[in-house]
Specification:
0% strand, mainly alpha, elongated
Length: 602
């Protein structure tokens, strides 16, 4: 009786939430991928059976035979078949068969009505098909038919909401059903904790973990703790992660390979090698074998430190121990060779990878393309880029930006523009990095008018230019001698909601000094300071050189002293100018003496 009341309360809550959902007002999308196995969530009433070894055609034939059988097989038999099809990831097929069963249960007197496990399978399929709205409607149907959802039913929908990016909605749904009597299990908590961590809300995940500890009847295990430890490491809060890790022993929880890998990765990212090695040693002592993720972390770390030979030895070791390298492992090693300019070795790794049946992905190709471009091998980069496309791999924004950057580096802005047009037509859409790269190239090639047209295109495409884009334009205008236009654009930035930075002012002030427009340069310098933008070492050197070049020795020495007092030093260009002025007659004798006195030269 109590359970019926709880289900009635849940049905009322669900119907209320369904109405809100249809209005389109529930929570912003925040996509993530559940990182741990969910096999235990899909054990829909003894799914093991003779259907697991069938292919799709055999499974469909079995379904049709079962429908013709008299008497009809029990619903559990159909559930086993549906589960086998779900394991093949043919979700739309399973949904179609579910609808046939549901219709049969409504219109026929034959006793083959879908049960709670059948409906749970349907929820799972809709969630994997990115139709969480339909999955939610299935839950409403469950309540309407008077069926009682199981823990797996709720877990499946919560997981679906998280996979769909609706973590906030999943949390609210979780809170409401718990308040109305639902007893969550470790998988429920684990799914919510994982979702919160994936959207960067580790603090909320920790609070939920503490709720589990207080509840008493559902204590957190290694999965929940490891998820939070991993998130803390990604947030660079490794000390806090280590503290949580050290507390596991007192709670009777044994860390697993995922726990150790997360910590080792976090420690390596912070350069704490000694502690990382200690944990590796501890894994060995505890007979916890390294998995492919652990080895990949080690390969990646060694490569980033330039120790590519050692990284290659790690890859050889993992193969000897029966752990197959994956795309991430091979890609990390390729990246290491590319960073050292050893493109031939990187290509050997690619060849070896393919020979082992490990297909390269977009990330792998992008690494090699970037390596080619670093080595000024733009033709090879383009060839690989086109080869990748022919193999059906769709370049992502990083790949496109890398190729566009390479074309710009070798002075081919028009070829880069062709790729930008291709992106606008077929996707992915260009981002600010794409446009900034092309703008720099156009300005460098003295094609300011084309740069301004590109800037207009940025705005027309709905992108909001940032300070980087405006700095490029100001720099381009200054180099093209359009000082008035550059100054006007610079001074208009606050009205656009952008605060000019030191980089924004430095190019403009430098050009004004070179043009002998000291008054305008000084006014702009004053505005810069008024806006709370302090000169850096580059700016101080520009100012000092500007005054020196215009025989303003007192101002030059005053700013030179301020620069030294601020902890900066004169750069090579400034010192070259100083000694050049002292060795020629370009300075007034009085200015030359003043400069010698400042430098302590007799």
């Amino acid at each position: 009786m109590m359970m019926r009341k709880r289900m009635a309360a849940l049905q009322k809550h669900f119907n209320s939430n369904n109405n809100k959902s249809s209005a389109g007002t529930l929570f912003p999308p925040l996509s993530f991928l559940i990182s741990y196995s969910t096999h235990s969530q899909t054990n829909y009433h003894s799914t093991k059976g003779p259907f697991n070894s069938l292919d799709l055609d055999d499974a469909l034939n079995s379904f049709n035979r079962m429908l013709r059988t008299r008497p009809l097989p029990p619903i559990q038999r159909f559930n086993q078949l549906l589960s086998a099809i779900v394991k093949m990831k043919h979700y739309s097929v399973a949904i179609s068969l579910f609808r046939q069963l549901h219709l049969l249960g409504i219109t026929s007197s034959r006793l083959v009505k879908p049960d709670i496990y059948t409906f749970t399978i349907a929820i799972n399929c809709f969630c994997h098909s990115n139709r969480v709205d339909f999955a939610s409607s299935i839950l409403g149907k469950i309540f309407k038919l008077g069926l009682e959802p199981t823990c797996t039913t709720f877990n499946t929908l919560i997981k679906g909401l998280c996979l769909d990016g609706n973590v906030a909605r999943a949390v609210r749904f979780f809170d409401d059903i718990v308040r109305k009597g639902f007893q969550p299990d470790p998988i429920t908590y684990g799914t919510i904790i994982n979702g919160l961590c994936k959207i960067g809300n580790t603090r909320a995940a920790i609070l939920l973990l503490k709720d589990m500890e207080r509840m008493g009847n559902c204590q957190p295990g290694v999965v929940q703790y490891s998820t939070i430890i991993d998130s803390l490491c990604k947030d660079k809060k490794v000390d806090e992660a280590l503290k949580m890790f050290s507390d596991l022993a007192g709670k009777g929880i044994t860390p697993n390979v995922f726990t150790y890998t997360s910590l080792i990765h976090g420690l390596c990212n912070l350069g704490q090698w000694k502690e990382a090695v200690r944990l590796l040693s501890e894994m060995t002592t505890r007979n916890i074998s390294l998995n492919v993720q652990t080895y990949s972390v080690l390969v990646d770390t060694l490569c980033k430190e330039g120790m590519v030979k050692d990284a290659h030895k790690v890859l050889d070791l993992m193969v000897q121990r029966g752990v197959e390298p994956d795309t991430i492992t091979y890609s990390a090693l390729m990246d290491g060779y590319c960073l050292l300019g050893k493109i031939a070795d990187a290509r050997k790794i690619l060849k070896c990878m393919k020979a082992q049946g490990c297909e390269p992905d977009i990330f792998t190709y992008s690494i090699l393309i970037k390596g080619y471009i670093r080595s000024k091998m733009i033709d090879e980069a383009l060839r690989l880029f086109n080869d990748m496309s022919r193999k059906g791999l769709i370049p992502n924004i990083v790949t496109y930006n890398t190729i566009i950057g390479g074309l710009c580096d070798v002075g081919k802005p028009l070829d880069a523009c062709v790729l930008v047009d291709e992106m606008q037509t077929h996707g992915p859409q260009p981002d600010l990095v794409t446009y900034a790269t092309l703008l720099v190239c156009l300005c460098k090639e003295k094609r300011l008018d084309e740069a301004l047209l590109l800037f207009k295109m940025i705005e027309d495409n709905g992108l909001v230019p940032d300070i980087v884009i405006y700095n490029i334009l100001v720099d381009g205008m200054c180099n093209a001698g359009r000082l008035d236009a550059a100054k006007e654009l610079l001074l208009s930035l606050p009205k656009k909601g952008l605060q000019p930075n030191t980089r924004s002012y430095s190019t403009m002030i430098n050009r004004l000094y070179k043009e002998g427009k000291l008054k305008e340069a000084n006014e702009l310098l004053s505005k810069m300071k008024e806006h709370g933008c302090s000169p850096n070492d580059c700016m101080y050197n520009i100012i000092v050189r500007g005054f020196l070049q215009n025989n303003e020795m007192s101002e030059a020495l005053q700013h030179l002293q301020t620069m030294l007092d601020s902890g900066f030093s004169a750069d090579a260009s400034t010192m070259d100018l100083v000694f050049n002025l002292l060795s020629t007659d370009r300075l007034d004798p009085s200015c030359k003496e003043e400069l010698k006195k400042f430098l302590g030269i007799t």
